Structure formats: C-alpha cells, structure tokens
Amino acid sequence: MTEKLKVATTSLAGCFGCHMSLLDIDTRIMDLVQLVEFDRSPLTDIKTVGKCDIGIIEGGAANTENIEVLQMFRDNCKILVSLGACALNGGVPAMRNQFDLNACLDESFVNGAGVVNPGVPDDPELPSLLDKVQPLHEVVKIDYYIPGCPPSAEVIYDFLTRILEGKPVDIPYAQIRYD
Amino acid sequence: MHSATNMPRFDTEHVIPFVDSLVLSANKRADRLLQLLVEIQTQYSFVPDQAILRLAEQLAIPSSEIRGIIEFYSFLHLVEQGDFQIHFSDSVIDRMSGSKVLIQQLCDRLGVSPGEPRADGRVTVSTVSCIGMADQAPAALVNGYPLTKLDSKRIKAMAQLIESSTPVDEWPADFFLVSNNIRRRDLLLAAPFQEGSALSHLFKTGTDGILDKLSRSGLRGRGGAGFKTAAKWQMCRDIDADERYVICNADEGEPGSFKDRFLLETCADDVIEGITLCGLITGANKGIIYLRVEYRYLKQHLEERLARRRDKALLGEGILDQDGADFDIEIRLGAGAYICGEESALIESLEGKRGIPRNRPPYPVTSGYMGKPSVVNNVATFFVAAWVATKGGNWFASKGTAESIGTKLFSISGDCRYPGIYEFPFGLTISKVLDECGASETQAVQVTGPAGNLVLSDSLERKLCYEDLPAGGSFMIFNKSRDLLGIVKTFSDFFAHESCGFCTPCRVGTSLISDLVTRVHSGHATQQELDQIQIIAEVMNTSSRCGLGRTASRPIMQALQQAPELFTHRGETG
Amino acid sequence: MSFILDGKNIPFKEGDTIMDAALNADTYIPHLCHDPEFVPHGSCRVCLVSCNGRYVSACTQPAVDGSEVESNTEAVNSIRRELVAMLFAEGVHICPACEKSGSCKLQAVAYYVGLLTPRYEHFNPPGRLDASHPDMIIDFNRCILCELCVRASRDMDGKRVFSISGRGSEASLVINSESGKLGDSLFDVSDRAADICPVGALLPKHKGYEVPIGQRRYDITAIDGAAAREPVKKSGKSDD
Ligand SMILES: Cc1cc2nc3c(=O)[nH]c(=O)nc-3n(C[C@H](O)[C@H](O)[C@H](O)COP(=O)(O)O)c2cc1C
Ligand code: SF4
Ligand code: SF4
Ligand code: SF4
Ligand code: FES
C-alpha cells in the first residue's frame, strides 16, 4: 500500500469511552499508524473533516450540531463506521427518548433535586436538542457497525486491520456484545 | 330502531342492576363476556368502570383481562362516546368517494376531533375499517345504523339533527336506505329459494347423498382459503365427539366486500337453511352466526327469520318432524376486529376472549368452539350449499371451469358506473367484468381485497378462477386518475391497524411497512428503505403465525414488482 | 420415530413438537416465548425452522417422522435476525443500562444469530415503569410479550396476575389489581412467575449486580450451550 488511508473519528452524544477503547489497542496503534493517517479526531485535534477513507463515529445524534457533524462525515468519508452502543442504538443518552424533552429539561435544570439557579440554559451558542436521540443509521447511511459499550480494543483492532487489508468484516461470535 | 335519547346517560345506580340482569340471562357463563360487553356498550356508549368490576366479580374474570378485551375491539370503549356515535367507513373506496372531506365537515360543524368524544360527552365521530357498503359509499354508521351515499348536504342535515338531539329513529328514512344493487343474476340468484327444499332433500337422500352432491358441485369455501366444503363437513361428521358446532362466519371484514351483507339481508333463508343442513349432516345441535358488529342492524331481521323458521319446523327440535333432527341457531355479535374473520380467532372471540388466532393444528374441525369439532364456513358457502342440496351438483357444475365449478358472487365497487352484486360463472376475464359493470379508463383492479391481488391494466385478460386469479368477495376498481401508491398506503395502514399483535413479525412488521410506505408515498424513501420493505415482507411472509401477517405485505410488494416506475419516479422528485 | 435436524437424527415420541424433540436431544433451536414447563405459545417466532421446505414454528409444530428440518442455516438465521431486530426496535433495549444484560435471552439469541446491525427506526415508546412492588420492578418497554409470566401466574401460581391488553402495536402487558400496579396485586417474589421473564422486563429488586457484568450466564456460555465465549484477550490478534 503506497498511500496511507485517511481516517477521521469523532464522538457525538457519547462518553468518549469508545475512543478510550480505541487507545486501548496500546502499542498496536503504532502498527496502525503505519497504515493510516488520522484526519479530524480527538486524537489529532483537527476540527474539520477532509476527504477521508474511513470515518468512525461514537455516540448517537442528540442535537443539531451532531447532525451537522454526522452529515459532514458522511459527505467526506467513503466508509462510515458506527462504533459502540450509542452510535448503534442511541445508548444511554437515548434513555431520555422515553420522556418528553421538556420534562427532561425541567427535571435537570428546574425542578430536579439540588438545582441552584433554576432555568433551562438558552445560550444561542448551544446547539438545540433533538426531540429524540437518534442512532446514526436513522440519519445517514452507515456502512459498518461495531457493537459494545464500549467495544473491546480487540474488536476495534480486528475490525480496522480487516478493513485495511481489504478482508470482509466478520465479527466472531465471541466478540459480539451489547454491554 | 334504537332511539338516541332513550339511551340512558351513564348513571351509577342503573349500572349494577343492568349488568346483573345481563349476567343472569347469560347464565353466568364467562364465555359470554364479549356479548355482555357489546350489550353494555350499546346501552351506555361505553363500558363503565362499575360494569367492569361487577362483571369481574360475577364471572370470576380479572378486571384487567376485561379491560384487555375492551381495548382489543374497536367498538368497545372505556370512555363515554355519547348519545350519537358516528363511525365513518374508512375503506379505500370510501376515501375515493370523498369521505375524508365529509368527516372533516362533520367534525367542523360539531366542533369535535376525530375519535375523541366532544367535551359535553354527547357525540363522537370516528372511523372504522370498512362497513361493507362499498357499493353505496361514502357510508357511515350512526349508533349502529348504516347511512349510505353521504354528501355535504346530508352531513349538514346530520349535524343539525345531532345538535337538536333528534333521536336516530326520527331521522329521515332515506338516510338509511341500503340498496341491494343486484346487477347480474345467474344460477343462484335467478329465482327465489324454496324454503325447506334442501332439508327435504336431505331427509330423502340421506347425508351421504347430500355430501355427494356437494362433492360433485366442487363447492369450495367462499371465505378465502377455498377449502372443499364437502370434505370439511365429512371430517367433522366422522370425528368421534359428544358435541359439535356449526359456525357461520359473517365477519366479512375484507375491505370492499359486501356479498355476505347482501346475502344476510336478501337471502337469509337460503343461508340459514345451509347452516341447518350442515348441522344435520355433521350431527351438530347448535349453530352460531358470528355477525360483525358493523352489521348489527341486521340482527333483528335475522332473529325474525330464525323465529319464523322455528314456527315452520325448519329449525329447532324435530326439524320437518323428523325424530332427533334437532338443531338451532344463535346469533352472536363481533365487536370490531378484522382478525376475528380468521376462523380460530373467531372461535376465541365466540368464547368471549380477545380475538387471537390459535396455533394450528389442531384445526377447528377437530377442536374448535369449546374444544369441540366445529365447521366454520363463510355465509356464501352455506348459501351455495343450500342451493346445491336442492338442485344437485350437476346443476351447479353446468357453469364455471374444471377446477372452479359453478358461479360466484362478486362485490364490485370503485370506479365503475354500476357498483353492486354480480353473480358470474368462474373463469370470466377481468376485462369482461369491467365491461359489464361499466368501468372505463381502468388503471388497476384489486381482486379479493388488500390480501388479494393487484391487477394492472396490462393483465386484464386474466381469469377469475382458482386456476388463475383466486377470487374472494371483493373486486375494487381504480381508474387512471387514482393515486396507486396512495391506495397501497391505505392497505398497509389497514393491516397495521388490524394486526392482532400476537406475533413479532406481524405486530412489528405491519407498523414498519406502514411507516415505510408512507415515506414512499410522500416521495422521501431511499433505495435502502425500499430494500428494507422487501426484507420485512419476506420475514412476515415466512414467519407470521396466521394469514393476516403472511399476506399483509402483498399490496406494497405487488406494486413494487408490477409498477416499479412508480417508485423510481418518486425517487427523482423526492 | 425420528426426523433429521441439520443433519442430526432426532428421535421423538407421539405428540412431541419439533422443539420438544430437539430439547430432549440437547439440540438448541432458538426460542424466546417457549419453556417446556408451559403450553406452547408461538408468539416470538424465533424458533422458526424449515420442515420439509415449509417454514413453521418449532415450538408449536408436531414432529413428523422422517422429515428434514433445517434450523441453524443462514436462510433461517437471517429471518431470525430480522425478528430479533424488530423486537429491539419496538421496545427500548439499552443493554449497557440493563440489569439483565448478560443473562438476557433476547440479547443471547441476538448474539447467536449474529445481529450486529441495527435496522429499523426505533418506535421510541414512552417510558413505563412499575416499581410499586417491594421485591420486583417492571420495565414495560423491555417486555417482548412472550406471555411466560402470564402463563406461569395463571397455570402454576393460580393467580392470573398478568395478562395482555389491546391489539396490534398497542398490545401491552397489564397487571390484575385495582390500581393496575404490581404492588397491589397478589404477586409474590416466590411465585413461579417471578423468575420466568426471559428479558429484563420483570426484574428482581436489590439483586441487579450480584453477578458482575461480564461474568454472567451468556457471557460465559453461549445460549446454544456449545460455543463458550472466550474471555476477552488483552493482546494478540484473534484468528481469522
Ligand atoms: C385475516 C383473515 C381474515 C379472514 N376473514 C374472513 C371473513 O371475514 N369471512 C370469512 O368467511 N372468512 C374469513 N377468513 C377465512 C377463515 O379463516 C376461514 O377460512 C373461512 O371462514 C372458512 O370458511 P369457508 O371454507 O366457507 O371459506 C379470514 C382469514 C384470515 C386469515
Ligand atoms: S400474523 Fe398478525 S394477526 Fe396473525 S397471529 Fe400474528 S400478529 Fe396476529
Ligand atoms: S432486556 Fe435484554 S436486550 Fe433488552 S436491554 Fe435488557 S439486556 Fe438488553
Ligand atoms: S414481562 Fe417478561 S415474561 Fe412477561 S410477557 Fe413480558 S417479556 Fe414475557
Ligand atoms: S419459541 Fe416458538 S414462537 Fe417463540
């Protein structure tokens, strides 16, 4: 392989746990770096996405900014990967989907226990919340999914090497977990 | 006719005695629960909490289960619907005849939202799947009585009658005119039926003689599955059992079908004689007509017919003075659920439960109502059987094709000049039918309702018979001005609304398909979503527990296969 | 009498369903609503098998002598995968936040059929919890309507605490008590119905994490009993 593959990653409504798991592949990240070049990613601190081969996203879509970033990734990445439970199903942030959004905001910022200075934040800088937290595949087309909360370093590493080697992705039974 | 103002407003004091009297008349039988709920609903326009608790206590059924039954059936309610309950028929034919606008007009005039009782609790306007009046659409029911051929003028008059609290039996009689619309007669409709003739033949030739005639006539069930009737009756007769039942399936839920309503109204004697014949042949003592609640207005007429036949020794003990020829018939009402047309769900419903189909085997002929061997046949099947018993199998076999013997009643509706009942021999081409009913510029025909087949204008030479296009009751015609995807959407919504919810593929699949078809219709579907529809359809077809789930994806799949251009075009504009 | 299940000879006796025979022969066919202690139900449909080329539910279909039954094939599993995905989409299944995770049959069957990809748009039903009982909690959005609790309470406990209400996608589990709450019903934690739920809908209180995540039933052994889940390796490539 002459040219390195470009990879971008981001966390939307996630907890960065999936990124931590990515870092958990330890020294093998050095092998990876031989093969890939990171574009936008919390690992590089680049803020915009250029044309990439692979985009990896953790977290679901909870606000308008998430949607923008997700669209941007879809527009720029040849392959888009949903990484982790939140990206696949909305995960823990999507637990709020069972409630009315305003009821959630009131509970957090107005009526909840221990709230000081009650009031729902309304700074125009803040992106507005979506009515429901959406899994990524409900917003854009996703090419690959890696379940887990977080997916183990093992799964992520295997997945990436398979993609890089152009092999079909096949997550073995022993590596599938939703928790 | 039931009077609106006579309906006692809900009143705590009356509820308990009323429920008690019902329970008593039902001999405290828990399997009568659904009938009691229908009576209570009719009386109060809902099932009050006190009634539920009283029934629970008297019949030893948990109140949660009673509520669960009420929530299953469209005509039963937990909140008061008011003195005037208007149910608009919401089939595709009603919609094509402008029902949506009329519903809106009535709602506006009365100041109500569809499906919600008005704040003063006096009136509710809602929709139900299809009330079997597609030949005189748009139609509705007011307190159970059919209103046909509605238009804006009539809607205005209705609103005034409601606002002035005019009892329904004082509304103009022409509002309630239900026409027969017989357009073509053949073997069966040519002459009136000779009461008792089939039964006399039975006593002359014996059960084997009649079964032989039925075999020769090739009669196959008219309810959809097309099972050989003679074989079904014989199986039931030959099983060792102490009790047996004959059940007449008058649930006619297939949108666009009204042949059963027509027969019950116009040829009730023929049908009842067919049921009686079956009872005497199989050795059952009891017959039940499961009448969909949309046809409740026919109950009195049928009761009168039954009474008259008892007087003439055509029903009851010692039929035609033959010793041991005892058979009687009871009418039970449904409560608004298409799935209760499926024979095992119907039996569950008759036993007073939610209409959830049973696991099969065992089939009803071996273990049906109350676990006893039961013949379930469609109204039209009994009707034909009575005629064949009288006139002979060869008489019937003089028409039709090799596999599809005789003639069949069709309910024709939609874009044609003469909608109504047509009796045709099997094997006619669709284009011939279209000619006869005065259809022009035909884009498509839906044969046998949403679960049947879509036939586009390039296939009009197909024949209506088991060898080619199996034909049930309903034949709906759509001309070139109609939005085919909109029709498909109506059908998909119908299945999502009528799925019983028991099994995963149908409960979830019908909802998913209905959402996806809505997206297709609005032009927003992606190729991925079209692929998804095909996957869901495959899953529903292969894994659903009963016929509803196994056929519910047909409208969209047939449209995708036969008219792919509809979808690509949408894709471009969307 | 016997039939062939995925190439294996399975003996059976008169009256056995395909599922009965397979279970007796220690051969796994996926199932969620079935438990040999109760009358077969046939609602989840994940026990779908092809019997002489016809799709049937193994838990309700009487076994037929000499028949060929296919279960663990891609054709059948691909349908099961969609069925499981439908159950996930219909309810609210956030496994990382569920006490049942690792011992949940829905999850384990999803692993078995290799469900990696969420498919359908989530239904997002409004939240419904019943925590009124001192020992048990119900999260209705995890209920898959298998009616095992209904059958256990009715047929074994003689209580009819649970039933299903409504029709179609509105169908839901309801409790028999004046308030509709479990706490006011006859339900007791020692009931058979208390430990029958295959998923995390009907859960015991105070026990959630007695067994840590990662060491639970299906973390250790796959639901078909055969393939043990390997402990997650810390380093080294897994074999291709
Ligand atoms: C979803 C569903 C709905 C049905 N609805 C009706 C119905 O409304 N009327 C009817 O006669 N048969 C209906 N059937 C067919 C019945 O299950 C049964 O086959 C029929 O009543 C048998 O009578 P036959 O042999 O005279 O046709 C339905 C079947 C299914 C699967
Ligand atoms: S296929 Fe549909 S109607 Fe039939 S049992 Fe399943 S959910 Fe009920
Ligand atoms: S019930 Fe099972 S599938 Fe649902 S969230 Fe809990 S562990 Fe996951
Ligand atoms: S609560 Fe559990 S056992 Fe009861 S029906 Fe729901 S999933 Fe089945
Ligand atoms: S296990 Fe057979 S349908 Fe659920």
From TrEMBL, chain A:
The UniProt keyword set, sorted, is: 3Fe-4S, Iron, Iron-sulfur, Metal-binding, Oxidoreductase
The reply on keyword Nucleus is no
- Cofactor(s) needed for function: [3Fe-4S] cluster
The organism's place on the tree of life at top rank:
Bacteria
Q: Where is the NADH:ubiquinone oxidoreductase-like 20kDa subunit domain?
A: 15-162
GO MF terms held by the record: 3 iron, 4 sulfur cluster binding; oxidoreductase activity
PANTHER family in the record, alphabetically? COENZYME F420-REDUCING HYDROGENASE, GAMMA SUBUNIT, HYDROGENASE SMALL SUBUNIT
Q: What is this protein called?
A: NADP oxidoreductase
Q: What is the scientific name of the source organism?
A: Solemya elarraichensis gill symbiont
UniProtKB/TrEMBL annotation, chain B:
What InterPro entries is this protein classified in? NADH-UbQ_OxRdtase_51kDa_CS, Nuo51_FMN-bd, Nuo51_FMN-bd_sf, NuoE_N, Nuop51_4Fe4S-bd, Nuop51_4Fe4S-bd_sf, Thioredoxin-like_sf
What sequence ranges are listed for the domain NADH-ubiquinone oxidoreductase 51kDa subunit iron-sulphur binding? Answer: 485-530
Task: Output the Gene Ontology terms for molecular function.
Answer: 4 iron, 4 sulfur cluster binding; FMN binding; metal ion binding; NADH dehydrogenase (ubiquinone) activity
Q: Name the keywords, alphabetized.
A: 4Fe-4S, Iron, Iron-sulfur, Metal-binding
Q: Which cofactor does it need?
A: FMN
SMART domains noted in UniProt: NADH_4Fe-4S
The record's similarity note reads: Belongs to the complex I 51 kDa subunit family.
What is the protein's given name? NADH-quinone oxidoreductase subunit F
User: Taxonomically, what lineage is the organism?
Assistant: Bacteria, Pseudomonadati, Pseudomonadota, Gammaproteobacteria, sulfur-oxidizing symbionts
